[in-house]
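User: Could you check the structure of this?
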Amino acid sequence: EKTAELQEMDALCREGVSILSDESTPLRQFGELLGRQWGLKKGMSDLISTREIDKIYDAGILAGAVGAKLLGAGGGGFMLFFAPKEMHENIKRALPDKKFIPFRFEWSGSKIVYHSNG
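Assistant: Sure, the predicted structure tokens are below.
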């Protein structure tokens, strides 16, 4: 049996797919889901986040991100911020020691971008 948190996370996932599948829905709503999901996940255990991760999250949100969540498999990873393009510079300034990697949705599917036979 799933916990209430897992049930809500499942519902958020379905809502996210719905938002991404409907071109008439503002993409900002997807960004808002990221923050809601991150809050649910953090509430499941004190071991999900750290003070450092919380500082990064808070700085990005205060600088204009709509939502964010941690990506990765423990011991490191990425903080994914969803923010309007006009807020990107504010977020970079708020987190000057962090690397900024631009992201965009790719609608044509997976592609090999680098291949080496060596």
